[in-house]
Predict the 3D structure of the following.
Amino acid sequence: KQEVTQIPAALSVPEGENLVLNCSFTDSAIYNLQWFRQDPGKGLTSLLLIQSSQREQTSGRLNASLDKSSGRSTLYIAASQPGDSATYLCAVIGHGDGNKLVFGAGTILRVKS
Amino acid sequence: EAQVTQNPRYLITVTGKKLTVTCSQNMNHEYMSWYRQDPGLGLRQIYYSMNVEVTDKGDVPEGYKVSRKEKRNFPLILESPSPNQTSLYFCATARGIIYGYTFGSGTRLTVV
């Protein structure tokens, strides 16, 4: 059964810092990995999608990498801003999971001004 | 504009009163799913559909029903809601497994 773990559970940084969020998954047989952002009580916004054949994806100040063989992904946020404060969720779709996204518990990020 | 629309956004209801949460998408996506999000338990899949008239159970299907009579709509039905179904519900759609999911804005349901 696929399990997804995100470290750290919470992170507080001053504005302007570069930061890394970590995601690990137990079964490397995945179709893709998706990073989402969730503001309190709100919906999920897709940030980056990395398909299993890809190593990384970039969007603006965000860069996500995927090492499928070791079961790890990182989300790098450059020059963090207070508006980046949110919960960041990592999710995978595995070969044995139908079309189900298996989510990690998330990292709660607070960027202080 | 491509979007997944859920209604209602907020709902307070009483135990046992049947309700339907609607989900509609305008992206012609094949895959549609329902998730619930609970503190400490994260996001869990309730039901999913891979095409019209094709639905299957997710991890927590008890107490829920779905239907997929047309491609764009995937309603979630609670025949007899109970307080343990108080949760934040999300509809999600995808063109295919490898293309990633788009989520609706969520429905916060409270059953008293």
Summary: Chain B has a mean pLDDT of 95. The CA atoms of residues 32 and 55 of chain B lie 9 Å apart.
